[in-house]
Amino acid sequence: MTEESTYYENLITRYFSGEAGENEIAELSSWLRESEANRDVFIQFRNAWHALGEDLVMESIDIDQEWSELEAKLSSGKMVEMGRRRTIRVVTRIAAAVIILLGIGFLFRSMIFGGDKTIEVLAQNEVIETTLPDGSKVTLNAGSTLEYPKNIDENDQRTVELRGEAHFEVAHNPEKPFIVSAGDYRVEVLGTSFYVNTNGPEGKIQVILIEGSVAVYHKYKPEEKTILEPGQQAEAQPETKEISTGNTFEEYFMVWKTRSMSFENERLDRVISIVSKAYNIPITLKNPASGNCRLSVSFEDQTLESVLKVLESTLDLQISKDGKGYIVDGQACD
């Protein structure tokens, strides 16, 4: 064991015991961001302290026994002061366990984001565009969330966490790599335009490179990077930790952002599916046989109402509102 490793193990111990000061916590956070090996050391300590925290809680959980003994002493008029001390000791144990478990969460946030001041952008029911302090632009699809440190432009690494679907236009800065945390995977870039979906088919994480260059890798295997070229897609499987690449992907993967659609002799059911994704609203075919009908039509950032009127008149459809979505009815086509 080297002197340096002993120093940081002592620092981790001081942190979990609540003895570390602000400067020590900042130093520990910086060390954790340096390598996966450092984080592995921390995780081992975290698991040990987590187990200790559970033991403390379980040891303190038998409150009924504690109070039964205390009430017996109180009712007999004996050892009142000892009962008070014992009660304080029980509460102290519980508090210690809670502090340890809360501390773990705090340090992990500090490790990932370089501080406890993070900004969360939540796209609830609509597409949201936001510009980060470093100049990078992010467009979030409805139901997606982005978290990033308030001082992202001051950190050595610009790290954000994505849950859902987003398009990134990263401000070029080779001195400060931009990293998207997408579940167990990381997408690392210097300056480029790309798409990430953490909720892909079969639980996969999808990355599609539009321009520039990105590296995709598992968080525990940063040395095994998959480099994408423009027009390529990477699909990462969390269970197997495998990453596959290809040049074929859904043509309208960004339709929720662009709302630009051009169909040539396309099936109605396919058109309905794309329109539904574009406007984040359920649209159902009442007569599945009408999905065989074909049409040629283009839309460029039009309102949903305008799109539906065009579909109605083109194929003589009846479209009605149904709760939060729409029902499309029409005659069958061969």
Give a brief description.
It is built from eight helices and 19 strands. With about 325 residues, the chain is an alpha+beta fold.
Summarize the structure in words.
Helix content is about 40%, strand content about 30%. Strands 1-4-5-7-8-11-12 form a 7-stranded mixed β-sheet, with no helix packed on it. The protein has a 7-stranded antiparallel β-sheet with strand order 2-3-6-9-10-13-14, with no helix packed on it. The termini are far apart. The protein folds into 3 domains: about 5-115, no CATH class; about 120-245, Jelly Rolls, CATH 2.60.120.1440; about 260-330, Phage tail protein beta-alpha-beta fold (3-Layer(bab) Sandwich). It contains 8 helices and 19 strands. The chain is an alpha+beta fold.
By CATH reckoning, the class of the largest domain would read Mainly Beta
Strand content: 25-35%
Task: Give the helix proportion (percent range).
Answer: 25-40%
Q: What is the rounded Rg?
A: 28 Å
Q: What coarse outline follows from CA principal-axis ratios?
A: elongated
Number of domains: 3
Mean pLDDT: 80
Low-confidence stretches: 54-63, 77-84, 112-116
Q: How large is the count of helical segments?
A: 8
Structure classification: alpha+beta
Order of helices and strands: HHHHHEEEEEEEEEEEEEEHEHEEHEE
Number of strands: 19
Which strands sit side by side, in order, in the main sheet?
Answer: 1-4-5-7-8-11-12
* Ends apart, CA distance between termini: 75 Å
Instruction: Provide the CATH architecture of the largest domain.
Output: Sandwich
**CATH fold name of the largest domain, please?**
Jelly Rolls
The major beta sheet can be summarized as: 7 strands, mixed
